[in-house]
Amino acid sequence: MWFERSIASVLGIDEVLARELLAVARERMGARRLRLHLLAFATATGPLGRILPARIRGRAVGGLVGCMLREIDEMLRYIGAAPAGHRGLLAG
Amino acid sequence: MSEAFTADVAVVGAGVSGLLVASELVRAGRDVVVLERGTRASHADQLAGDASQTPPATAAHNDESPPDTERYPWDYGYAVGGCSLRWSGVAVRLLPADFELRSRYGVGRDWPIGYGELEPFYADAERILGVAGGPGAQTDQPAHPLSPIDRLLAERLAPYVPVPQARPSAERNGRAPCTALARCRLCPSDARWSALHLLDDEQLDGHEGFRLLEATAAARIRVRDDHAAVVEAVRADREHVEVRANEVVLAANAIENAALLLRSDLDDGVAGRNLADHGHRLLHVECDVPTGAGYGASVTTGLSLAWADGPFRAQRAAAVLLPVNAGVELSEVVTAQLAAGVRGAPVREAARWRKEHTLVLDTLYEDLPDPRHRVELSPRRDALGLPLNRITYSWGGSDYVRAAEAQLEQDLGERLADIGGRLVHAAHTALGGHQLGTCFMGAADGVVDAQERHHRIANLWVTGGSSFPAYSAMHPALTIAALALRLGRRLGAV
User: Fold this and answer.
1) What are the structural domain ranges in chain A?
2) What's CA B77's distance to the chain center, in Å?
């Protein structure tokens, strides 16, 4: 899907991870809201985004990014660190 | 049309205080009616809402700020379970010195009771809440292990101890232990204690001596001959309710306890004043070494007491510091990068570096009582026809707090110099969750006496965060629970 490729490219990750993070966002916000956020994200990070003030660009991408990277496991996966979601790793 | 109830004791508020008082009274054979403005949502119902978010209050806030002032973000919710549905679980005791601030350091107030008076109730509260770690640690609930961040900081920010927290580290009462998913405001597994647990664990549900009136807001206390005779209440459907009881316990939060006294014409000139909250200040400290952020057995596992007590409190506030194991919110980092026009691998690399090299440190400060910070009744009314609570409160902190912030941040740079620690961001956040002080315990100058009995109305008791004469820097939940147990046992023994 084009938006998975786009998200992967913009965020510097592979398409598999992009697909997984988008699935998380879809579960949280629903398909309809996700489409709106994707549109805003694509606009703000595409050629048109260059003429937008940074504040507007931030608001446009923030909704989607905030929903994809909300929990600690998602953050760790994004940066390529080991997941923290089970007690074996969490034993400190 | 109105509905009438009678009971040995009427309790206003079904949060930590109210349900703990009620459970002690029921255990002692008393008939108890508990009135709660909000409704009951089971843990499953809360999860069905949104598992990663704070559970919603079941009734709207009814506070306002004075005209032309900025609204302070009071963080509480009307619901059966109260704020225990949305707390992080930190269950620390106050320090002995916190009860003697005036005697030791010449500022603020002393409590009319000492640490020793509350100590046995602290121990019982830790048992009931299933607190892991801490001075009263139970052998079956050892402290959560220190996280990698804690291990980096423990010596540098000594004294440094595991955070006592009401997240069991082992199975308890049929509930799984903490699953360490760092979603403590609404625990995914119901391990983190909430007052709803009392309904099951203490078998309040279905007990013949216990009646819970949900969606029923206490409107006023009818007083005759200096005796609290009736609690008048209004239900969400605007039907009126009356509860006649021998004893009346106000066990709501510090805003609502004060407002109910004011609505009952029990304004002694002190009730509602001295409202306080802990000023959380979140510090971002970048380091030259990896911090280990992202790992830990719960949201926060270590507590620095380096600024918690000392003669300095004559001039500046005490503070406690708790590292946030999750570290920085990556969504903020990534959003900022994208807004700045960065794309692709550099975005991820910036996020990775920030995550791995940034400490996020939650700091809490005590403040001194300020009678200008207060709850009053507004001429405007809420949906139930009750006056809104008009709250005058400003954050920015007093000079006492600002001096402490400056000192802590300076000290931090020195203590973390060997790992290149440098403060890059500081902001007040997570405000409004610790409402304290509006009906404080005091000899003649307080609203209630050392037993939490109202000074004029002998059968009226006020408990909870509103009773605190001085605030400490410590999270108040365990002390609120200990006070409730103490009061419940006292009334149960009468």
Assistant:
1) 2-82
2) 12
Q: What is the pTM of this model?
A: 0.93
**CA pseudo-torsion sign B285, B290, B294, B299:** negative
Is CATH 3.50.50.60 correct for B1-131+184-277+369-394+433-494?
A: yes
> Tens digits of per-residue pLDDT, B365-383?
999 999 999 999 999 999 8
Instruction: Tell me which chain A residues have a C-beta less than 8 angstroms from the C-beta of B150.
Output: 92
Q: What is the pLDDT of residues B334-343, one digit of tens each?
A: 999 999 999 9
Asked if the peptide bond before residue B159 counts as cis, ω within 30 degrees of 0, the response is yes
CB contact under 8 A, B146 and A92: yes
Percent of the residues in chain B that have a pLDDT greater than 90, as a whole number: 76
What does the DSSP 8-state code read for residue A83?
Answer: P
Render B27-91 in DSSP notation, one character per residue.
Answer: HTT--EEEE-SS----HHHHHHH-TTSPPPPSS---EEPPTTSPPP------STTGGGGS---B-
Strands of the sheet with B387-392, listed across from one edge: B63-64, B387-392, B374-381
CA distance B463 to B473: 20
B183 at interface of A, judged by CB pairs closer than 8 A: yes
User: What ipTM was reported for this prediction?
Assistant: 0.91
Amino acid present at B263: R
The structural domains of chain B, with segments of one domain joined by +, span 1-131+184-277+369-394+433-494, 137-165+279-365+396-430
Cβ–Cβ contact A55 with B under 8 A: yes
Q: Is B339 on the interface with A (CB under 8 A)?
A: yes
